[in-house]
Every structure is written in structure tokens, then in C-alpha cells.
Write a structure and sequence with these properties.
Blueprint: E1 4-5, E2 23-30, H1 34-43, E3 48-53, E4 62-69, E5 72-79, H2 85-93, E6 96-103, H3 107-115, E7 121-130, E8 133-141, E9 147-152, E10 165-166, E11 178-187, H4 193-203, E12 207-212, E13 223-230, E14 237-244, H5 251-259, E15 263-271, H6 274-283, H7 295-303, H8 310-316, E16 319-323, E17 326-332, E18 343-350, H9 360-374
Parallel strand pairs: 2-5, 6-9, 11-14, 15-18
Antiparallel strand pairs: 1-12, 2-6, 3-4, 3-10, 4-5, 7-8, 8-9, 11-15, 12-13, 13-14, 16-17, 17-18
The structure holds fe (ii) ion.
Fe (ii) ion is lined by residues 183, 185, 266, 268, 345, 355.
Protein name: 4-hydroxyphenylpyruvate dioxygenase
Cofactor: Fe cation
Domain VOC: 23-153, 180-334
Length: 377
């Protein structure tokens, strides 16, 4: 059970970062009913109404709602008629993440630097303008049908992007303390992990932080492998999972079957107070995976002293793990759409920079119990 930590920075150390990224700009989900999805993310997750695009703004093909909580922006997009690429995406994959948008200072340079290193183009550099200024966008493909859009917004002062107007609502449930996207995990096919690790290393200049093999991430029945890629300043972290052989079906394989391809498995969002945040999420009807309560009998022997009382963590089902630099608290929702595909992680870091390896076994046994109920184990 060895966690391979690559503390040495990548081979580009001392060299200029050819793809500087300021942070996650937004995450766009293609969904069957954007209006109802926006209501769900407001009501259940505490997002706030931000921007809207649709018939009233001259968009005849799609309706999009943008919701925001601190630094996290989600776009929820549905088609307004048949025969659209968005509709085809939803038909094949169900609701899921299409765009992981990255905030950059130079969308044109981001495009050319990644293209010359082998990226596949999704959108050539494009300027969008309105009376609030201009935004430059460009985009490349990543795993499955997922894409990265580079967003350069230094010359823009509007609410979100040109083409959107402010979305004003009277129904505004309170935020619940979600702060920023901590990491986003991709599930890729059998034997594809290293291909996508190489893509993030070579095409986007990312470094490998950690790797887990199937001996780390396995239970009696199911297994997966994972490597974590991070950009230069550490603000973007993308773990990449692939299934591994076990006695029964890996959770990654179940995802690939139901998503009908590779895609985003979970969005991890950070909070400064996980007890308050998860209490609010539960009160608002969000379902979480639960580990058996015996987990809490021994967890403090494993992780040592923590600032929080154990009892509320146990009541809420929050998991704890420690690495060399500190500890972390985390919990995972059940999938948030009919197919057992994408879910959310809520994470509070108290020094730890890792991803909760100590919880993998208990967690995957909890997932297996869910798979068993679905008949997909
Ligand atoms: Fe995670």
C-alpha cells in the first residue's frame, strides 16, 4: 500500500510555464432540463442565480442558466429543439460535464501552445463582444467528448460572458459555504490512463502529483488505478482513473458503461466548514454515500488528533484522512442524475494535499453496496 508521491517538480522546472492557468473559469453541464437543474443546484447546493442565455437573449438553439457560489460557476445547458449536438450528447451520455473551462490571460497563446504539442482543436480562438467588453475563447478536446475551453476575460466587465444577461430571481436560497473547485476526476477506458496522463503532461504541461495502483485502490471485489495531474500553480488538479481487473465490475467500468464513454466522474468542491456545509446539503435533500459506523471506531487511531469533534462527523458520515502535511475531511454524494455516473465530493483541507487514499477501501465497499442494489456489480 504505497502512495507514490512525486514531490520533485516536473521536467519543465526552471522553464516558463507555457500554459499558465489562473483557475477553473466554469464547468458546463449538458442536461435534459436546464431550468429544473438550475433550481436543483440553487435549492440543494446553495448556488446563486447569475446569468441566462436563451430565446430572450436571441439564442434560438439553447437555453443556459449560470449559477455561482463563491468561485464556482456552473452552466446548465439544454437544447430548444431536436437535432442539436447538445441533444445528441445528452442522448448518448445522459446529463454530464461537457466543458471544463480554464481561466487564462491569453486564450490565443493557450490554444497555439497546446495545439503545437498535439492537442485536437475544439474551437479556434474566437472573440465575443458586447457593450461590456470582449472575451477571447479557444478550446481543445480531452478524454471522451469532454473539452477544455480557455477563457480570456481581462477586457470584459459584464456579468458572465457576451451572449448572457443577468439572471434575476426572487427565489434565492442561501449559499452553503462551497468555495472553489478543488479537483475534477476523469474516468477513462481500459489501458487509457497513461495516454491521458501523457496528454496532460506533454500537451498541457501538467505534472504528476500522485499515483495509485490497483493494490492501493481495491477491495475484495473491485479495483481501479489513478494518477493525479496538476498544473504549474496547483490550482488545477485532474485525477485520471481507469478500471482494473477485480473479481467483479469496477465502479469505473460501471461509469463507462452508463456514460457510454469516458467523462467526468466527480467534481470536488471545497468548503471551510464541512460540518455546516454537509448539514445544509442533507437538510436540502442531497444523498451521500455512507460507510459503516465501525469506520469511526478506529479512524482516530489512523489519522491522529483533529480539530473537530468526532460525533458530528460520524453523524454526517464525513470521512477523515491524513498525509505528511495535514489532514482532510471529505464526503461523496450519490450520483446526481438517473445514470450512475457523475457525483460531487465535498472536501475540507486542513493542510493535506492528497485525495483521501486512507478512505478508499471503506468508500469503495460503500460504492459496491450501491452497485449491488443496481445489479451492476
Ligand atoms: Fe476526489
Amino acid at each position: 500500500m504505497k502512495e507514490t508521491v512525486n514531490k520533485q517538480q516536473n521536467s519543465t522546472e526552471g522553464m516558463e510555464d507555457f500554459l499558465p492557468i489562473n483557475g477553473t473559469d466554469y464547468v458546463e453541464l449538458y442536461v435534459g432540463n436546464a431550468k429544473q437543474a438550475a433550481h436543483y443546484y440553487k435549492t440543494a447546493f446553495g448556488f446563486q442565480s447569475l446569468a441566462y442565455s436563451g430565446l430572450e437573449t436571441g439564442n434560438k438553439d439553447y437555453e443556459s442558466y449560470v449559477v455561482v457560489q463563491d468561485k464556482i460557476r456552473l452552466i446548465l445547458t439544454s437544447p430548444l429543439h431536436g437535432g442539436t449536438p447538445v441533444g445528441a450528447h445528452i442522448d448518448k451520455h445522459g446529463d454530464g460535464v461537457k466543458v471544463i473551462a480554464l481561466w487564462v490571460d491569453d486564450a490565443e497563446k493557450s490554444y497555439h501552445e497546446t495545439m503545437k504539442r498535439g492537442a485536437k482543436s475544439f474551437m479556434e480562438p474566437t472573440v465575443k463582444e458586447d457593450d461590456q467588453g470582449k472575451v477571447k475563447l479557444s478550446g481543445i478536446h480531452t478524454y471522451g467528448e469532454t473539452v477544455h475551453i480557455f477563457v480570456e476575460r481581462k477586457d470584459y466587465h459584464g456579468i458572465f460572458l457576451p451572449g448572457f444577461r443577468k439572471w434575476e430571481t426572487e427565489y434565492n436560497p442561501a449559499p452553503i459555504g462551497l468555495k472553489y473547485v478543488d479537483h475534477m476526476v476523469g474516468n477513462v477506458g481500459w489501458g487509457q490512463m497513461n495516454k491521458w496522463v501523457d496528454f496532460y503532461a506533454n500537451v498541457m504541461g501538467f505534472t504528476q502529483l500522485l499515483s495509485f495502483d490497483d493494490k492501493d485502490i481495491s477491495t475484495e471485489y473491485t479495483a481501479l488505478m489513478s494518477k493525479v495531474m496538476s498544473n504549474g500553480n496547483g490550482r488545477i488538479k485532474f485525477p485520471i482513473n481507469e478500471p482494473a481487473e477485480g473479481k467483479k465490475k469496477s465502479q469505473v467500468e460501471e461509469y463507462l458503461d452508463f456514460y457510454e464513454g469516458e467523462g467526468v466522474q466527480h467534481i470536488a468542491v471545497a468548503t471551510d466548514n464541512i460540518i455546516e456545509t454537509v448539514s445544509a446539503l442533507k437538510n436540502r435533500g442531497v444523498d451521500f454515500l455512507r460507510v459503516p459506523s465501525v469506520y469511526y471506531d478506529t479512524v482516530l487511531d489512523r489519522v491522529g488528533e483533529i480539530d473537530e469533534e468526532l460525533e458530528p462527523l460520524k453523524n454526517l458520515g464525513i470521512l477523515i484522512d491524513r498525509d505528511d502535511e495535514g489532514y482532510l475531511l471529505q464526503i461523496f454524494t450519490k450520483p446526481v442524475e438517473p445514470r450512475p455516473t457523475m457525483f460531487f465530493e465535498i472536501i475540507q483541507r486542513k493542510g493535506a494535499k492528497s485525495f483521501g487514499k486512507g478512505n478508499f477501501k471503506a468508500l469503495f465497499e460503500a460504492i459496491e453496496r450501491e452497485q449491488e442494489l443496481r445489479g451492476t456489480l
